[in-house]
User: What shape does this take?
Amino acid sequence: MENKTFRAMVVEEVDKGVFTRKITDRTIQDLPEGDVLIRVHYSSLNYKDALSASGNRGVTRNFPHTPGIDAAGVVEESGSDLFQKGQEVLVTSYDLGMNTSGGFAQYVRVPAEWVVKLPGKLGMKESMCYGTAGFTAGMSVDKLMGTVPPSQGEILVTGATGGVGCMAAGILAGQGYSVTAVSGKPDAKELLASLGVKNVITRDAFLEGADRPLLKPRWSGVVDTVGGEILAAAIKATLPLGVVTCCGNVASADLPITVFPFILRGVTLVGIDSQNCPMTWRKQIWDKLAGDWKFAMPEDLVSEISLDDLDDAVKAILKGQVKGRRIVNLNR
Assistant: This one.
């Protein structure tokens, strides 16, 4: 088995600071040590994957490397009593695809404590329609729903055409929330409406006059995926005792804000870290995504690509040209 070859994307540093990526053959013995060998059937493309595939050392330190922070497949070998050959499983986050060979390959080998048995109502392909993006959205929604009921008012979702934003909007609308979205893409309204979004605000309109320390309160809760000025403006306009979740920094890692929303309105800011989510909570979120939170995904929300399509998809997501989700079929 160790000599078995399979296809994978491999990113190499060919000169200092110069990286290439290609689809090539690897062998099982090239994989890191681990308890569970998984034959990957599906993965998905996330912004973090695109950074890793471009040689970003804030994500991946050592090259050559195979990105892919998501993987769904079938157990091929297991040194753990928790998993048996033939079981359908998924792995998201932890170190997969960062410094551990990831899901843009037909095989991964990982520690048993990273692996989740696929919930019975969720297929492998469907699980990757969610992937880390959907899981992160689920964590955000879980934090909101514990405090903010649908009757309390509007929920704001920022970066709404990205993977996390789309999934959060779909879950929230399906649970009876009135969702307003912020998007920088002028052609996003149709997709967002199909997810149940009631209102779409352009990024420029959202930031107009947002330099004041407090804004007119409007949002009972916020799922922010971008950070920076957008997150600051959302916090400033959150209703008293509202909850704001934060999971991204694609706009900026800085937060230009005063303490006033927190000490005058009691706003709660919750950080979402899907990479290190405890397994007990992780399983609960996946069970909800497979059950009560499952929503009918519009046809144009998810598109399927192959390993050979990945290079173009990486370029597109880095340019902000991707709406929704891209899942990678490792059998194509």
